[in-house]
Sequence to fold (303 residues):
Amino acid sequence: MVAKRTLRDLNSKVELYTHNSCCDMREHSQILPVPYVLYSDGISGTLRTSSGVPLAGVTMRLSGPLEAVSTTDSYGFYNFTFLPSGDFSVAPQESTGYQPQSRSVTFTGEAMTADFVRPDSDANGYAIAGQVQGLNGQGVVGLVVQLFAGGEFVAEFLSDESGGFSVTGLDAGVYTFRLADQDMALNDADVEVTVPAESKVLLLANIGQLATGFLQIHIQPQEAADAGAQWRRVGTTTWYASGELETDVPVGEYEIEFKSVPAWQPDGTIEVQVQEGKTATGMTSYIEHKAALFGVMMLLLDE
Fold:
């Protein structure tokens, strides 16, 4: 059941102030006629880049029967609660570059969602999402991650409760991520990421007991594999051939990406779960480029 509040006073008007951790309406108090019903469910949503990286610290504005502001958290989430029914509009304060720039919502007391996407581009900048994992494959909270470009320090981030961190607004280029405490880094390895070709990074911390398994990915058809199609875990650097076994893979969930080769295109990424002492397997199919087939046909016709 949706919770609601009815506000009345002797003058049939009430000055409304609502405040919670993610939505501050005190800046935009209003005089409302009563009786007026406020519902505990409200309008919420997320802001992300087109590569899926959450956008934190973005000011959102709600207009309509009530006006309010909210700031997205580290997950890109915002929330407006205790609203009256009516027609609202919600938008990022700086709406340029978002799709859409604003959303119209007819609120009737049931929870409503209004999400926004900011495309990765030269104009908007590019985003990278990462995770710090321990030897047991679990995320590690509270480690400082540093970002460098061309050997120069750019910024640093603190890994959250899931070990995650992200950065947005980057120019195209090559970036290096490393743990600030090199004693915590596994093999003292920096991780290099090329933007915009890559948008995810994985850092391993020398914490916890190492639990590992094996990973084996098969690529179909055989012609694509013969043409050089390969796979790797997102955020790692080593490519593997179809059927090749990767050993000493820390336990955890992984996204597998595939290398494009002439005349063949991978059909997206796949997810795998590596368990201790076991071999996780997966399979993907490549799609033959129609353009390549057309070119072959034209060559045959020319002959």
Observations:
- The longest strand covers residues 279-288.
- The chain has a mean pLDDT of 83.
